[in-house]
Structures are given as structure tokens and as C-alpha cells.
Amino acid sequence: MLFVRPGRLSDLDQLEAMARAVRPILHSLPPDRRALEARLALSQDSFRADVDTPGEEFYLFVLEDARSGRLFGTASIVASAGYAEPFYAFRNDALIHASRELKVNRRVHALTMSHQLSGKSRLTGYYLDTLIAPELAPDTDLVARLLSRARLMFIAQHRERFAPEIFAVLVGITDENGVSPFWEAVGRKFFKRDFADIELASGGRSQTFIAELMPSYPLYVPLLPPDAQRVLGEPHANAVLPYSIHVEDGFEPDGFVDIFDAGPVLTANVAICETVRRGMQRRAMRTGKPGRGDTLYLVANALTDEFRCVMTDLETPLPADIPLSDALADCLLLADGDALCCAPLNHQGASR
Q1: pLDDT (average), residues 114-131
Q2: Does residue 43 lie in a domain region?
Q3: Domain boundary, last residue among 242, 274, 306
Q4: Is residue 141 assigned to a domain?
Q5: What is the CATH number of the domain that holds 295?
Q6: CA-CA distance, 10 to 173, in Å (whole number)?
Q7: Taking all residues of the chain, what is their mean pLDDT, rounded to a whole number?
Q8: Which residue from 137, 149, 204, 274 has the highest number of Cβ atoms inside 10 Å of its Cβ?
């Protein structure tokens, strides 16, 4: 059985191995043991803290096999992006250029550096090991949804910890050598460094040097090289599945692009995210035997530092008391009568 839980310092070795396997390199999962250790420590403190409003908290989740203890993935939430310094992205703008004398009126696509995403909560640090054993995960797409949407299940039950609006920045197009066409056309002109170097140095797109070095005036997209224009808002092959999962959940992809590789930035209001909107509060009922159902659901407990989320088949419509086998209830740390949250994994017609 695969389940999602908060990361612990004891996960450091496995997380370091994941970070070194990720391509292209992610600033949100740096291949640096000390940086990962610091993130795990901050995450543990964040899960344990009493929080009334989002601040500098960081929540790191891992995907674990209950039988072996092996980790197969990780995903995170930043409670308030740009809490200490603004979070930078390029905003997609349309500038009007018109001449009455020449009878010309043109809308020109431009990119303008913006920190409008500052203060919103951010989904980040997503990585799924593609070598999950078939007997554990016959459908990798389903496991990807479990890992990604478990974060929204946590947000749904702890709304005070997060902003009303949320976003995710996905990896943009790079070639097999990690070269980004957009970075070569724009960022390198100002930073004089390789994309991988600046990706790690950026620390989540909230460093002062971004405002100091990147152009503050609009970049006219038609003036960029064709290969840089083609990758605007396009996800890397490794990010296509997470991209589709976010879009299915109601995220919009057109407002911003990443400031370095022009990868897609997807935004949403938490309240209308499908996982949150379709989430149903129920009670646990231990039955001692496997249940039967016709719809695949995400099921999560209501805890914080002992949060757990799994996927399992449940009956539709859901009863007030959700029957759980002992193994499933133990995995979720649930006793009879404990609160839990259920949301359909595929957002297909489950009723309240």
C-alpha cells in the first residue's frame, strides 16, 4: 500500500538520492544534503506549529510503501511564497500599439516582471520515481494523482495555514544537456551563468538579485528567437503529467510563466479546486476486513504532523461512516469515529 505522509529527518538519505536523480535539476529539491536537511527540519517544525495565518511555513510530503518503507516520491507546499522577499515571475501581457495615420492597431504579446504571486501558497517540490513496482502501482497516473492531490487534501482540512489562492510553477523546456532555449535568449544575457547554476542559486525565485539583474521593462515576445518563443508556457516532458493533474483540478495556466525557463505557472483559488470542492467530511468505521467500492477516492485523516493520505475504492454515494479494513485504518492512524476526508481521485461525478 502506498500512502503520503509528512517527511521526517530520517528520510534524508532517500530524499538525497531522489534529488540527485531529478533531471532537470529543481531548486525546490536541491541535490545538497545540508539544504535538504534544513528543509526537512523546517517542515517538521511547520507541521508541529500552531498556525493561524500563513507565514514562512514549509510542508514536505513523501510517498511511502507501507510494506517496505521505501520512498517513491516527494511533494511540498510553501505556505506563503515570497514571505521574506518578493516571488518573481513573468506576467503575460498584451500591449496595444496603434497608429491612426497608418490605420494600424496591434496587440503585442509582452512579458513583464511581476511579484503578484507573492503571498499566495505554492505547490512545489514534486518528484515521482518512475520505477514503482507494478504490484504496488499498476497505474502510475493514479499514483501521481495521489502524490500531487494529497497536498490539497491537507490544505482542505487546514485552511488557516494557507492563502486563499494557490499556484504551481512547473519545469519548462530544456534539452538533454539541460540547456533552456528561453534562458539562453533572455536570462544568460543578464546573469552570464548557466541555467542549472542559477536554478539552484535562485532559492525559489525570491532572491534580491533577480530584481537587480533581470529587466524591469517589458520583453516583447516577437523580438525573441523563435525557439525561445516556442517554449513559452510549455512543460518539460517530465512535467506533462503534473501539468494535466493541476488543470484537471481547476488550475489556470495563462497568467504567468517562469522567469528563468518560461515554464508554465498555474494558478487557482483554493475554494474551487476540485479536490477541495469535492472533499467530504466523514467518520471512520473499522470493519476488520477489506471493503468493496465502485469509485476510487483519496482518503485522508484530519491530523497535522501525523497526516496520512491513501487511495482506495469506496461506495458511491458515501455513507456517513466509511468502512475501513484494519490495515487501511492503521495506515491512516484512524480509530472508530475519527474524522476523515474523502475526495474522488478522478473528479468524476461522486455525490455528497
Answers
A1: 91
A2: yes
A3: 274
A4: yes
A5: 2.40.40.20
A6: 34
A7: 89
A8: 149
Per-residue pLDDT at 193 exceeds 50 = yes
Residue 352 lies in a domain: no
Relative to beta strand 339-344, strand 280-286 is antiparallel
Domain assignment present for residue 109? The answer is: no
Q: Name the pTM for this structure.
A: 0.92
Q: Are residues 8 and 37 in the same domain?
A: yes
Q: For the segment 29-41, what is each residue's pLDDT rounded down to a tens digit?
A: 888 899 899 999 9
Tell me: do 185 and 291 sit in the same domain: no
**Segments forming the whole domain that contains residue 250:** 2-88+116-274
> Does one domain contain both 174 and 252?
yes
Tell whether the model's pLDDT for residue 246 goes beyond 80.
yes
Query: Where do runs of H (alpha helix) occur along 160-249?
Result: 181-182, 188-191, 195-201, 208-213, 226-230, 240-248
Choosing from 27, 109, 115, 236, the catalytic residue is 236
Give the model confidence (pLDDT) of 265-313 as tens digits: 999 999 999 999 999 999 999 987 766 788 999 999 999 999 999 999 9
CB contact at 8 A, 200 and 30: yes
Phi, psi of 40 (to 5 degrees): -65, -40
pLDDT digits (tens, 9 = 90+) for 145-174: 999 999 999 999 999 999 999 999 999 999
How many domains does the structure of the chain reveal?
Answer: 2
Parallel, antiparallel, or unpaired: how do β-strands 165-169 and 121-128 relate?
Answer: parallel
97 assigned to active site: no
Domain's final residue, options 247, 274, 301: 274
Question: In this structure, what C-alpha cell is assigned to residue 190?
Answer: 543578464
Q: Specify whether the backbone of 123 is left (phi greater than 0), alpha (psi in -120 to 50) or beta.
A: beta
Q: For 238-291, where are the alpha helices, taking DSSP H only?
A: 240-248, 274-277
Q: Can you give the C-alpha Rg of the chain in angstroms?
A: 21
Checking if the pLDDT of 74 tops 60, the result is yes
Residue 81 carries which side chain, given as an amino acid letter?
Answer: A
Say if CB 105 and CB 180 are below 8 A apart: no
Residue 157 belongs to a domain with what CATH number? 3.40.630.30
Residue 199 and residue 164 share a domain = yes
187: helix, strand or coil: helix
Asked if the model's pLDDT at residue 351 lies above 50, the reply is no
